[in-house]
Design brief:
Layout: E1 3-7, E2 10-12, E3 18-25, E4 34-39, E5 46-51, E6 58-60, E7 68-73, E8 78-83, E9 92-99, E10 116-119, E11 123-127
Parallel strand pairs: 2-11
Antiparallel strand pairs: 1-3, 3-8, 4-5, 4-9, 5-6, 7-8, 9-10, 9-11
Length: about 130
């Protein structure tokens, strides 16, 4: 059974840092580009970052560029999103998703959810003083 599980969310003060993880089960994460999305209360889900299967390509939305870093450890079947200098507007549910297609397919720009086929359940990130 294909499964993605996010973890690492929590409550942080503005300016703080947090790393969320996306672990895969039931498939080899190394064959898939992975996207990160978030959904703030009352807003639509937005793509914020992605990383190609090899890690050679990464993309970031303008809202997180320079503050967030996506990385992966294919040996651990896990993708990470390091979030620094957190802002209250970063509050939301964070999801990872595996792109459609095979190795090196996907992640050609900031992710759009219709190009992703497997989704995790999300992890909540709250930035508040």
């Amino acid at each position: 059974q294909v499964q993605l599980v996010e973890s690492g969310g929590g409550l942080k003060e503005p300016g703080g840092s947090l790393r969320v993880s996306c672990a895969a089960a039931g498939f080899d994460l190394g064959y898939k580009s992975i996207g990160w999305f978030r959904q703030a209360p009352g807003k639509e889900r937005e793509g914020i970052s992605c990383i190609s299967s090899s890690g050679d390509r990464t993309y970031y939305a303008d809202s997180v560029k320079g503050r967030f870093t996506v990385s992966r450890d294919n040996a651990k079947n896990t993708v990470y999103l390091q979030m620094n200098n957190l802002k209250p507007e970063d509050t939301g549910e964070y999801f990872c998703a595996a792109a459609r297609g095979g190795p090196e397919q996907g992640c050609y720009a900031v992710p759009i959810d219709l190009f992703y086929e497997y989704w995790g359940q999300g992890t909540q990130v709250t930035v508040s003083s």
